[in-house]
């Protein structure tokens, strides 16, 4: 390190004067090896040429040269750094400077610093730099020179500041990773308040070929593993398809492979051990969600989450909008995201929320679909490939993902950007998603309720992502393998919901039809005179609905559970209800306004049911 010193020109010539004289003679100075790590050669050359004249680049960083009348003073200011570009928003506001530096582990860190902060809050800027591992001189009286270095560095390069990680706009030409690196159009960067949350350090290891061999191919014949990895790719498709975020929650007993699934999926984008915890405040999760926009957010152990707030958190993660925060200059800034979520735990989402006596709302359950892990045989895995037991297989995967990570996701985005450059590809993507939905529905017995349709849409998105990654030669899987895996996982979801199949619904409808055929004369017409239900009558009828009394409902479902039958119809959209219950409060035309089971006539086969109210 070069300490500040007063040096006679003759004394300094051997060490410092030579490069200064070379600069004065318009000779090209060699760029120190440490600076060559900071960016591409062409951009580095441009940056070094724009460096202010009173600063020099040396192997250990930037030195300020203070010219005096007969004496020069040298101050070693900071580690190697460059100003790569100036940045502003599309509205020509928030002028900032994009710098790149080596942290104390000699890793390259990119950071966007607000020019107004450099001018007015320099100590805060220095603190942010130091927090990211940037070495600066401990002599605070020279910190102003670092501010001057950044502001006076007149680089010709310009970039546009954006308000989110992941996809930056609807053109889908630029995708920003959590460390600030840009895939695609490199003329955009996150705004400083986002870059302040960006991660640093190595975000990838190995090659795509390594990841395919170590993670992709071992997933073959393991439907849950294929599904979770496909979900990791799906994070990049939510926004182009205009769909709300969300994902899956895998749950089961201890040692069934849940954490291994999360690590394998997380390796698509990040170090496998970089799993987030449910045990955090909502504000912290908002920042984490914003960092993972367009990617996968893996949340381990739902049991650590507060059951009183997890429902609200689930909504927030899916909706993609944080609460606005005022900056020091009273500017309102919101965090935004579109991401895939993969969660794990021993309890289902419903059971965890239910531990407080609350009910799981339908919107929560469809945003984070519960997938139970089968425990009767091998847990999360069906095929162990070259391993003898599921435990050995899980251990092998955990070792392999530590050697190959962070390459598959960025490569998927690169190829997706290239594919989407075709003007018709957005419509092609939507059509592909619709085709996958049809493939998943074919041959399956799904309830025809709205929640199942939304879940099917989510499963189709995951399958589409996995099939696209396969078509892009990333996974090593066969075409159609992901759709087959999703069909298996959807069966697990249906079992976990304990929902009726189409055959169950048909049987329930047959019982209603049989009852109507026999007892249609016992239904009173509406509108009717304001009288109570007459003796021997079983309910009411109008142009659109059959209204069955409790007695009638119990009679028609004798030998079955009447309330379960009602739930089936409600989930299928065939039962009209006033509130969260299963019955309908009759209109004022009926004395006392009793409650009844209101079955929509359109749901029944009206070609068979031809009844007239008597």
Topology:
Layout: E1 5-8, H1 9-24, H2 41-49, E2 55-58, E3 61-67, E4 71-78, E5 81-88, E6 96-102, E7 108-114, H3 115-120, H4 122-131, H5 143-152, E8 158-162, E9 166-167, E10 174-176, E11 182-184, E12 188-190, H6 192-195, H7 208-216, H8 223-234, E13 246-251, H9 258-266, E14 276-277, H10 282-291, E15 296-300, H11 310-319, E16 325-326, E17 332-333, E18 340-345, H12 349-354, H13 362-367, E19 368-372, H14 390-401, H15 408-420, H16 425-441, H17 450-471, H18 481-497, H19 502-519, E20 523-525, E21 539-541, E22 545-548, H20 550-556, H21 562-571, E23 575-576, E24 584-585, E25 595-600
Helix pairs in contact: 8-9, 8-17, 8-18, 16-17, 17-18
What key attributes describe this structure?
614 residues; alpha/beta; Rossmann fold; 25 strands; disordered N terminus; disordered C terminus
Written description of the protein model:
This protein is an alpha/beta fold and 614 residues long. The chain has three domains: 5-159, no CATH class; 208-497, Rossmann fold (3-Layer(aba) Sandwich); 502-603, no CATH class. The strands form six sheets. Strands 20, 21, 22, 23, 24 and 25 form a six-stranded mixed beta sheet that branches. A five-stranded mixed beta sheet has the order 7-6-5-8-12. It has a five-stranded parallel beta sheet with strand order 14-15-18-13-19, sandwiched between helices. α10 (282-291) links the parallel β14 and β15 (296-300). The longest helix has 22 residues, at 450-471. The chain is elongated, with a radius of gyration of 32 Å.
């Amino acid at each position: 390190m070069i300490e500040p010193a007063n040096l006679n020109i003759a004394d300094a010539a051997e060490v410092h004067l030579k490069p200064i004289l070379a600069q004065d003679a318009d000779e090209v100075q060699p760029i120190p090896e440490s600076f060559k790590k900071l960016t591409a050669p062409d951009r580095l050359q441009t940056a070094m040429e724009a460096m202010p004249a009173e600063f020099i680049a040396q192997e250990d960083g930037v030195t300020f040269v203070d010219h005096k009348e007969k004496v020069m003073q040298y101050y070693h200011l900071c580690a190697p750094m460059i100003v790569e570009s100036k940045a502003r928003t599309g509205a020509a506001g928030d002028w900032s400077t994009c710098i790149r530096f080596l942290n104390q582990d000699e890793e390259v860190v990119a950071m966007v610093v607000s020019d107004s902060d450099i001018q007015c809050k320099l100590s805060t800027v220095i603190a942010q730099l130091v927090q990211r591992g940037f070495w600066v001189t401990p002599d605070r009286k020279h910190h102003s020179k670092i501010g001057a270095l950044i502001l006076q560095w007149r680089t010709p390069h310009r970039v546009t500041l954006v308000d989110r990680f992941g996809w930056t706009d609807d053109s889908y030409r630029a995708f920003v990773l959590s460390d600030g690196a840009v895939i695609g159009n490199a003329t955009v960067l996150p705004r400083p308040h986002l870059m302040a949350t960006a991660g640093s350090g190595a975000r990838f290891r190995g090659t795509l070929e390594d990841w395919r061999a170590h993670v992709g191919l071992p997933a073959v014949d393991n439907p849950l593993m294929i599904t979770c990895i496909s979900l990791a790719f799906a994070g990049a498709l939510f926004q182009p398809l205009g769909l709300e975020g969300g994902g899956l929650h895998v749950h089961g007993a201890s040692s069934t492979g849940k954490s291994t699934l999360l690590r394998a999926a997380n390796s698509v984008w990040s170090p496998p051990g970089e799993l987030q915890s449910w045990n955090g405040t909502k504000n912290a999760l908002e920042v984490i969600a914003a960092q993972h926009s367009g990617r996968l957010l893996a949340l381990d152990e739902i049991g650590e989450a507060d059951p009183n707030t997890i429902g609200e958190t689930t909504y927030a993660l899916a909706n993609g909008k944080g609460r606005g925060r005022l900056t020091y200059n009273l500017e309102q800034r919101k965090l935004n995201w579109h991401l895939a979520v993969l969660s794990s735990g021993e309890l289902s989402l419903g059971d965890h929320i239910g531990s407080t006596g609350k009910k799981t709302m339908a919107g929560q359950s469809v945003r984070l679909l519960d997938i139970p892990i089968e425990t009767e045989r091998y847990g999360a895995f069906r095929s162990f490939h070259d391993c003898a037991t599921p435990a050995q297989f899980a251990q092998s995967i955990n070792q392999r993902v530590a050697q190959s990570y962070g390459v598959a996701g960025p490569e998927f985005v690169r190829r997706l950007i290239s594919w989407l450059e075709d003007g018709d590809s957005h419509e092609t993507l939507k059509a592909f998603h619709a085709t996958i939905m049809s493939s998943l529905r074919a041959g399956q017995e799904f309830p025809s309720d709205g929640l199942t349709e939304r879940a099917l849409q989510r499963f189709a998105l995951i399958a589409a992502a996995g099939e696209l990654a396969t078509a892009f030669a990333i996974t090593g899987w066969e075409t159609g393998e992901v759709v087959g895996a999703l069909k298996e996982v959807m069966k697990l979801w249906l079992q976990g919901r304990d929902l009726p199949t189409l055959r169950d619904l048909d049987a329930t409808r047959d019982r209603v039809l049989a009852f109507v055929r026999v007892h249609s004369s016992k239904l009173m017409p509406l509108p009717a005179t304001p009288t109570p239900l007459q003796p021997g009558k079983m309910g009411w009828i109008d142009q659109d609905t059959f209204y069955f009394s409790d007695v009638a409902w119990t009679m028609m479902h004798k030998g079955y559970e009447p309330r379960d039958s009602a739930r089936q119809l409600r989930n299928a959209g065939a039962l009209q209800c006033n509130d969260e219950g299963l019955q309908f409060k009759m209109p004022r035309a009926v004395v006392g306004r009793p409650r009844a089971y209101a079955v929509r006539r359109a749901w029944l086969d009206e070609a068979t049911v031809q009844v007239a109210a008597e």
